[in-house]
From TrEMBL:
The keyword Lyase applies. SUPFAM superfamilies: L-aspartase-like. The modification 2,3-didehydroalanine (Ser) is found at S142. GO terms for biological process: L-histidine catabolic process to glutamate and formamide; L-histidine catabolic process to glutamate and formate. The lineage of its organism: Bacteria, Bacillati, Bacillota, Bacilli, Bacillales. This is Histidine ammonia-lyase.
């Protein structure tokens, strides 16, 4: 059970809710703060004080006063008009994460919603009712307005959901689970949509996948080291301590551990004096990507517990401030950084693929072909990897450097963070497929060099990989192998192989 209080949610908790379907509850003490915050909103409505978002219009309409009898209609109109998302829906796990993160933000007690709003968000999570939320249409300030509006529709008994493997109207799923739709009251519509939960939810899922991709890249690179008889001296701890980056030192340590008893790796001068950078500089390049991922993790851990609503209610309503916590710039920059970090893991992987297939750069059969000339072997797999990394380079262009004014220039700088998070997700999927190609080629190269000489840890991974991708004894439709390997890498239980980062740090 994961209990929400607005302050202590962790990435581990989110992972448990998203993938292990852990149940969610609300902290009673936190809900007391919610009640007090709501009482402040009710007083404002009763006393007819003019406060943005409670009894005014929105954006450029912030100076338009709304009559008390029209406050509920104001919230309904807000959600309907802002539900402008387009394109393919977010993955279900992202929609689920958005429910969780919005509930955690509202339970902080700064937003003025009734407890029932938070209870309904949690009901949807526990019933596995996931709103269908189009991916495109958010500027990332004032928050993820369009995506979160599609989430809010479901609370009202509208919109569509993913439920038990089907895409159905939201009201049908609510009825099947005995969940009553909500009529939004003052400020509640705005509180539901004014935040960064779309980009942050996508960012959390991205980080969890990127972390695994980075770990995968090290094991796969280790098998490539064996296939190419790589030189281990470059991984000596003294080399990396001399530079001082902890992440670089940790990568080198993990590679040394994976290859500690290998009979295929070599020493300086044994076969050659130096390896190419794509082998020799694995700790430096992969380590730098880990540095970026650590930055991303730090920002996500803050944002998942942040109050991103506007206005915010303090001191039981004594202070209500219209600010800008909905602006997604911190996550926008983090997502752009993540894009570059993961793209680089794919870039260096593609260069190792080239070294595995190019007969001018190794002592393996040309293109790892069982019959060079008659059979092309892995030739076109390298083409596919090159295409994927080239696509990543276009996706890695930072979204956060763009801004288009909106709401008649009232909202004149926006983050585009949701675009960055979506592009980061695409880069991660591409990178995993590049690593799948490197894995296929590395397995074949290690087979030519002698599997019996592999290190014990890489040999275990080799044997398991061969259950997914058989040895190349004849040309076949390699697209199937690439996809099978990519799916396996995504679903792999790395703890079963002891390939966690925490272990490497110990």
């Amino acid at each position: 059970m994961v209990e929400l209080n607005g302050s202590t949610l962790t990435l581990k908790d989110i992972k448990a809710v998203l993938f292990d379907k852990a149940m969610v509850s609300a902290s009673p003490a936190s809900m007391e703060r919610v009640v007090k915050s709501r009482a402040a909103v009710d007083r404002i409505v009763e006393q007819q004080k003019v406060v943005y978002g409670i009894n005014t219009g929105f954006g450029k309409f912030s100076d338009v006063l709304i009559n008390a009898e029209d406050v509920e209609e104001l919230q309904l109109n807000l959600i309907h008009s802002h539900a402008c998302g387009v394109g393919e829906p977010f993955p279900e796990e992202v929609s689920r994460a958005m429910l969780l993160l919005r509930a955690n933000a509202l339970i902080k007690g700064y937003s003025g919603v009734r407890p029932v709003i938070i209870e309904r968000l949690i009901d949807l999570i526990n019933a596995e009712i996931h709103p269908v939320i189009p991916q495109q249409g958010s500027l990332g300030a004032s928050g993820d307005l369009a995506p979160l509006s599609h989430l809010a529709l479901v609370l009202m008994g509208e919109g569509e959901v993913f439920y038990k493997g089907e895409r159905i109207p939201g009201i049908q799923a609510l009825s099947k689970e005995g969940i009553a739709p909500i009529v939004l009251q003052a400020k509640e519509g705005l509180a539901l949509i004014n935040g960064t939960q779309a980009m942050t939810a996508m960012g959390v899922v991205n980080y969890l996948e990127a972390e695994q991709v980075a770990l995968e890249s090290e094991m796969i690179a280790s098998i490539t080291m064996e296939a190419l008889r790589g030189i281990m001296d470059a991984f000596d701890e003294d080399v990396h301590l001399a530079r001082g980056y902890s992440q670089q030192t940790e990568v080198a340590k993990r590679i040394r551990e994976y290859l500690s008893d290998s009979g295929l790796t070599t020493s300086q001068g044994e076969i050659r004096v130096q390896d190419a950078y794509s082998l020799r500089c694995i700790p430096q390049v992969h380590g730098a990507s880990w540095q970026a991922l650590d930055y991303v993790k730090e920002k996500l851990e803050i944002e998942i517990n942040a109050a991103t609503d506007n206005p915010l209610i303090f001191d039981d309503g004594a202070k209500i401030i219209s600010g800008g916590n909905f602006h997604g710039q911190p996550i926008a920059l983090a997502m752009d950084f993540m894009k570059i970090a993961v793209a680089e893991l794919a870039n260096i992987s593609e260069r190792r693929i080239e070294r595995l297939v190019n007969p001018q750069l190794n002592d393996l059969p040309p293109f790892l072909s069982p019959q060079p000339g008659l059979q092309s072997g892995a030739m076109i797999m390298q083409y596919a990897a090159a295409s994927l990394v080239s696509e990543n380079k276009t996706l890695a262009h930072p979204a956060s450097v763009d801004s288009i004014p909106s709401s008649a220039n009232q909202e004149d700088h926006v983050s585009m963070g949701t675009i960055g998070s979506r592009h980061a997700h695409q880069i991660i999927q591409n990178a995993r497929r590049v690593l799948a190609i490197e894995l296929i080629c590395a397995l074949q190269g290690a087979e030519f060099q002698g599997v019996e000489k592999m290190a014990s840890r890489t040999r275990v991974f080799y044997d398991k990989s061969r259950e997914i991708v058989p040895s190349i004894t004849k040309d076949r439709i390699f697209s199937k192998d690439i996809e099978a390997a990519a799916v396996w890498l995504k679903e792999l239980d790395w703890a079963a192989y002891g390939l966690t980062r925490a272990e490497a740090k110990a």
